[in-house]
Amino acid sequence: MKALLLAGGLGTRLRPLTENLPKPMTPVFHRPWLEHLIVHLRDQGIEDIVLAVKYHADKIQSYFGDGESLGVNLQYAYERQLLGTAGAIKNAQAMLGDTFLVFNADIIHHIDLQPLLEFHRGHRGLVTIGLTEVEDPSQYGVVQRTKLGEIIRFVEKPRREEAPSNLINAGIYVMEKAALDWIPESRETSIERETFPTLIENGMGVYGTSIHGYWMDMGTHERYLQVHRDVFDGKFPLRLSTPMVRDGVWMGRNIEIAANVRIEPPVVIGHGAVIEYGSTVGPFTVVGDQAVIGPDCSVRNSVIWPKARIKGRTQLSGAIVGHGFTVTVGETAAREELEAVMQ
Ligand code: GTP
């Protein structure tokens, strides 16, 4: 079965990190999230993958090419203008089979797809939506279902006590090609806000079933940091590309660590990084490839992207420092000051 990955959006909520980078390409432990996703799908036997791209499509294509190095066949569906989550699926129609999977490529997850596919086969709807449970449904569109799992409606941002469930659309679908007849050609259309409600109104068979396993929408800075924390806490089983050199410390090649440096696990340090005299790195910190932590700095609970430089005795906590950016705040830095990037 083919999978379509929606990877063309602007990622505005994650700016400035996404100023020059598609959101699914943001690094998660030294690799673009999209690479982790493609490998995860390949490991479940999904080797034919279509990428629906628009915003900085060149960065995705130049990184993955035809997918051979990852053991998959990649095709690209380009959009001339942003078509929205439904329009992007319609635009890729010619590359898809009769039944296919769709993923929002910015959803970080680790789930077994077999139960979702079996549910879809068993219920024979036009669409099966993977549902994930949230603690507080008041910020989301919550689903109301029949006993058989058919979705009757989405209740947008219900008061907590009035929510019919705490299950929300996880951004993972199994779809029949016939569902695409309900999407207009060449105009921006949202699958969540337009297509699914229309299919439901017309009784076309939109089902929902819970997915089990790690799930996180990485669309905001807080959630992006949370994903890293969850890997360190063992909640999200991500395969790291750097070896563990001692308990809770993963290090790449050619790292320079000066005297009098404290490494407080858990920490992951990328290839060619430099940690200078008197600095403290960690806990819960990822240092990107070739990043430099200058003398007497402290970096904790943070994600430092490749080639960034932290200087001037700066103390960082809860920060994301973008590719190649230099931080010279001097004293203790608030996170808001530091979510700046230069790609
Ligand atoms: P925000 O601007 O922060 O809301 O991010 P976004 O629009 O990039 O992401 P959103 O969460 O709205 O979309 C979910 C997924 O669909 C993301 O992986 C997006 O890249 C993708 N997506 C959104 N709009 C489009 C589109 O018009 N075309 C394509 N190909 N993908 C899209």
TrEMBL record:
Start and end residues of each Nucleotidyl transferase domain: 2-231
Keywords: Transferase
Entries under SUPFAM superfamilies matching the protein: Nucleotide-diphospho-sugar transferases, Trimeric LpxA-like enzymes
Keyword Transferase in annotation: yes
KW Transferase (keyword) present: yes
Gene3D superfamilies in alphabetical order: Hexapeptide repeat proteins (2.160.10.10), Spore Coat Polysaccharide Biosynthesis Protein SpsA, Chain A (3.90.550.10)
Domain Mannose-1-phosphate guanyltransferase C-terminal span(s) in chain numbering: 263-327
InterPro entries hit by this protein: GMPPB_C, Mannose-1P_guanyltransferase, NTP_transferase_dom, Nucleotide-diphossugar_trans, Trimer_LpxA-like_sf
GO MF: transferase activity
Family: Belongs to the transferase hexapeptide repeat family.
Protein's name according to its UniProt entry: NDP-sugar synthase
Gene source species: Alicyclobacillus acidoterrestris (strain ATCC 49025 / DSM 3922 / CIP 106132 / NCIMB 13137 / GD3B)
Upper classification of the organism: Bacteria, Bacillati, Bacillota, Bacilli, Bacillales
